[in-house]
Amino acid sequence: MDEEKQRRSASLQHLLRPPSNPAEHEGLQISDDMFGGSASSDDANSSSELSLSDDMLVVTGLEEEDSEEMGDEDEDRGESADDGGWAANIAHFDPPCFSDGEKVGPVRDISPNTQPIDFFHMLVPESLLSAIVQQTNRYAHKYQLKNGRDEEWRNVDLAELKAFMAIFMYTSIVHGIFSEDITTVWEDNSITYNPVIASIMTQRRFQHIMQYFHVVSSSAQQQSDSLRKIRPFLEAVQNSFRNEFKTAQTHVVHEPPLEEEPSVWSPRLERKRRKKKRFNLFVRQCTATGFISQIYIHVKDKNDNQTLHEKGYSIARALCSDLINSGRNHIIFCEPLHTSLRLFRELESRNIYGCGVITDAKHSDCDGLPASVLAKPPASMRKYNSIVRTKGRYSSMVWNSPRIPFRLLTNAFSPAAQGKLVVKKNRRPDEELPCPEAVQAYQNHIKYIDKYNEKFSWYIISYKPNKTWQQLFWTVLSLAMNNSYIMYKMSPAYAHSQLSRNNFGADLLRAMAGPYYQEVPAWGEDISDPED
Q1: Which of 138, 260, 315, 531 is 20 to 30 A from residue 455's alpha carbon, by CA?
Q2: Among 94-103, 237-246, 451-460, whose mean pLDDT is lowest?
Q3: Which 3 state secondary structure label does DSSP give 285?
Q4: Residue 268 lies in a domain
C-alpha cells in the first residue's frame, strides 16, 4: 500500500478528498457556510464520510429495489456469465491529470470593495437587461395597436425594470412563501405583506409590467423552438457562466432540485389548481465549488419519441459540449440516467473522462456492459468485496455494500486502487469500509453537490407564473444569483465584508431597486416632513 501511495501523484489526491490546506482550493470552503448557515461537524475535510444510523449505508443514485430487480438468478452467475470481452484482469493506472493549473474561481481581478450587484452583472450584464426593456416596450406597443390603447401604460426604463426584478428576487430570500400568488406582498392583512417591498412600486404598476414583460422578440426566432422566448437570454447567461469563472477538474451532470411547493398557502391558492411544471432542468456543476457552468432545459412534449436512454445520452453530451477538445482532462460524474458506455467512449475521444452509477436496464443504458456486474452478486460474495471487469481503460464494477449492490462504470479511476468510506454511526465508534477508489471518489463529490443543492433550493425565486417561459426565466435568474454569490465567496470581497447568502441577496435586492427602495422608518422614529 505504501508503494502505491508513493507512485500516485500528490496533485491527484483532490479527486478523493478535499485538501487539508484551505489555500490549496478555496472553493471547498464554500461547503458548510456557503449560504451563511452555521457550521456543522460534517465539514469540508470529511467529505468522504457518511452519517448513518446503525448499520444502514445509503448509497447515492441507487434504489432499494435494485437488487431485487436483478431476479433470483444463479448465484454463481458472476463467475460464469458471458461478459462480452470484459476481463477480470486488473491493471493500475493513475487518474487523468488536470492540465489546467490556473486558480479556480472568478476570471477577473476583483477588488475587495466589489459589491453584490457587480458580481450579478458579471453574469447578467446591464446590456442584457436593457434589451429586455426594449422588448417589453416594443411588445406593449404592438399589443396596444392590436387590442386598443392602454391609457395607464407608460414605457418602462432600465431603473424601473431592475426594481421590478427586485420584487421577484425578494421571493428568493424569504424561503418559499410565495408561489403563483405574489400579489400578497401588497396585502396588509396577509402574513406575506412587506411594506418595504410594497413601496418599491404599486401593485397596479407591477401587474402592468408583468402583462407586457417580454425577454426577446419571438417573431425573430424559429417557431418550432420551444425555448424561443428566452433562447438569446439563456445563451447569453450561459456564455457569462463559462467566461467569468474558472472551474475545477471534476463536474457532475444531474437534475438539481427545484422547490415546487410553497411553505405558506393562501386561500386563493387552495382554490386554484397549480399548473404542473412542463420542463426539466439539467446542469453541469463543478463539484469543488458548486458553480453551475452549463444549463440544459428539456421541455416536455407529448410528441417526443426519444427513449429514456437516448434522452440521458443527448442531455449529458450537450452539457459537456463546451469541454470537448479543451484538452484539460475533465472528469464527469453521472447519475444513472446519463451513465452509458456509449457516452463515456465519445467523451474520452475528446479528452473527457467519466464515472457514473449503473442501476437496472430501465434507468441506465447497460448496453455493452458485462453480465457478471449487472447480475445479482453471488451469495458467497462478502460485504465490501467487489467484482471488477475491465476492457482497456474502462472498468465496470459492483461493490457489495451493506445495503444494496453499488455498480459503477468508469474510465477515470484505476480498478486496482483501493479507497475507504468512513461510516459515522450513532452511539458506536466510526467504521472504515474498504471500497474501490472510484466508489470513494463518486461519494465524495456527489455528497458535496447534494449538500450544495439542499441549501440552493431555499434560494430560488419561488414565484411560479403560469407561462413556462417565464418560469424558466426566473429559474435561470436564480442560478445566476447563486453563481454570483459563489464568485463573491471566492474573491477578496468576501474577506472584506463576509456576507451570508441572505445578506448578499438583500444587498443585491436593494441595489437592483435603486432609487425605488426606501426603508420603512423604525418604530418610534419621527416620520414628519423635515420642512414642516
Answers
A1: 315
A2: 94-103
A3: strand
A4: no
Q: What is the pLDDT of residue 383?
A: 83
Tell me how far apart the alpha carbons of residues 358 and 156 are, in angstroms, rounded to a whole number.
52
**What one-character-per-residue DSSP string does 300-357 give?**
--TT----HHHHHHHHHHHHTGGGTT--S-EEEEE-TTT--HHHHHHHHTTTEEEEEE
Instruction: For residue 515, give the amino acid letter.
Output: P
Confidence label for 48 from pLDDT (cuts 50, 70 and 90): very low
Please name which of 438, 231, 425 lies closest in space to residue 331, comparing C-alpha atoms.
438
DSSP element (H, E) containing 299: strand 292-299
The H or E element spanning position 207 is helix 203-212
pLDDT, residue 318, reads 94
pLDDT digits (tens, 9 = 90+) for 371-397: 989 988 888 888 888 899 999 999 999
* Distance separating alpha carbons of residues 246 and 437, to the nearest angstrom: 26
Confidence bin at 176 (pLDDT 50/70/90): low
Report the domain count for the chain: 1
- Give pairs for 497-506: CB < 8 Å, separation 24+: 499/36, 499/116, 500/33, 500/35, 500/36, 500/37, 501/34, 501/35, 501/36, 501/455, 501/459, 502/35, 502/36, 502/173, 503/36, 504/36, 504/116, 505/116, 505/169, 505/172, 505/173, 505/459, 505/481, 506/173
Q: Does residue 289 form part of some domain?
A: yes
Cell numbers standing for residue 249: 477538474
Q: How far is CA 520 from each of CA 360, 452, 508, 524, 525, rounded to the nearest angstrom?
A: 58, 34, 18, 12, 10
d(Cα 207, Cα 202) in Å, to the nearest integer?
9
Asked if 89 contacts 470 with a C-beta cutoff of 8 angstroms, the reply is no
Q: Calculate the CA 467 to chain-centre distance.
A: 23
Q: Is residue 465's pLDDT more than 60?
A: yes
Domain hosting 145: range is: 116-259+277-516
Residue entry with cell 467487489: 386
In order of 114, 125, 171, 441, 523, the CA distances from 506 in angstroms are: 15, 19, 11, 36, 21
| Count of other CB atoms within 10 angstroms of residue 296 | 19
Question: Has residue 17 been placed in a domain?
Answer: no
The backbone torsions φ and ψ at residue 424, rounded to the nearest 5 degrees and listed phi first, read -90, 115
Concatenated DSSP letters of 393-435: TEEEEEEE-SSSEEEEEESSS-TT-EEEEEEE-TTS--EEEEE
The span from the CA of 389 to the CA of 373, in Å, is: 7
CA-wise closest residue to 175 among 521, 474, 414, 501: 501
Do residues 408 and 327 lie in contact, with contact meaning Cβ atoms separated by under 8 Å?
no
φ, ψ dihedrals at 447, nearest 5° = -65, -40
Q: What is the pLDDT of residue 177?
A: 63
- Residue 296 inside a domain? The answer is yes
Distance (Å, whole) CA 282 – CA 486: 19
